Amino acid sequence: MKKKAFLCSSFGPGFHPFLTGTDKEITSILGDTYDFVKITDEFRDMTLEDMRQYDCLMFYSAPFWGLKGDSDFIANLLEYIATGGSFLIMHIISTGAIPETAQVVGGGFRMHPPFNRFRFEPENNGHPILEGIEPFELDDEMHQVYTEEVLNRTILLTVKNDNGRPHETGPVAHQDIYGKNSRNNVELAWCNEFGKGRIVYACPGHNADDYRHPMLRKFLSNCGKWLAREI
């Protein structure tokens, strides 16, 4: 029997358009494991009872900006996860703008260098999500994040900061905090557990074309199965 999922994103036009194919690709990838009971751009009024209707809450580039840690939504979300819910964050780890959720999820978005082609490398740690996952390349953003080292995060995918066009001087939002061509491993996907719940952050997937890549599809499918406790 399939699990029940809630999928949320911004429906407005912009740099991460959701309703121009990304929605269909995400539901196609995860559809073997989940029934998407609700796909919406509204989430702030969700009660804990609302959340518990779903086995997994999924957010793609969702507009968490402006929420505070004392908001009812954040309090409900943390209790939902701690008591056994699953939480999948795709592309932008925007919950990281809120200290309370940054600590639980494992980090927060800082900025990204210019859009470019990057090579995603799976970690060699034996995690079931990485079964059958090989290195792959995407035209995407290399999101750079503040991370919470106190959590026992399992890193899944990294990008070496040694490729791409030069990171030119410009607005802070596009400066490279790791240093141009530093070869530092930038962590772009991980999983962790909080209380009885499970969490996955997966940055790769800027648009519908990215979500058509066979290896990214397999990776996200594995993420969905792990969140559903099937692997």
Walk me through what this model shows.
- Helix 3 links the parallel strand 3 and strand 4.
- The strands form 2 sheets. A 9-stranded mixed sheet has the order 2-1-3-4-11-10-9-6-7.
- The two termini are 15 Å apart.
- It is globular and about 40 Å long.
- Helix content is 21%, strand content 29%.
- It has a single domain, classed as Rossmann fold, CATH 3.40.50.880.
- It has 231 residues and is of the alpha/beta class.
Q: Give the strand content.
A: 25-35%
Order of helices and strands: EHEHEHEHEEEEEEEHH
- For the record, the count of structural domains works out to 1
- Uncertain spans: 164-175
How many runs of DSSP E, i.e. beta strands?
Answer: 11
The geometry reads as: globular
Give the second-level CATH assignment, the architecture. 3-Layer(aba) Sandwich
CATH level 4 superfamily: Class I glutamine amidotransferase (GATase) domain
User: What summary fits the major beta sheet?
Assistant: 9 strands, mixed
What is the alpha-carbon Rg in Å? 17 Å
Q: Provide the CATH topology.
A: Rossmann fold
Biggest β-sheet: strands ordered side by side in the sheet: 2-1-3-4-11-10-9-6-7
- Could you report the average pLDDT, rounded to the nearest whole number? 86
List the helices and strands and how they pair.
Elements: E1 3-8, H1 22-30, E2 34-40, H2 48-51, E3 56-60, H3 72-82, E4 86-90, H4 99-105, E5 107-111, E6 116-122, E7 136-140, E8 144-147, E9 154-160, E10 185-194, E11 197-202, H5 208-211, H6 214-227
Parallel strand pairs: 1-2, 1-3, 3-4, 4-11
Antiparallel strand pairs: 5-8, 6-7, 6-9, 9-10, 10-11
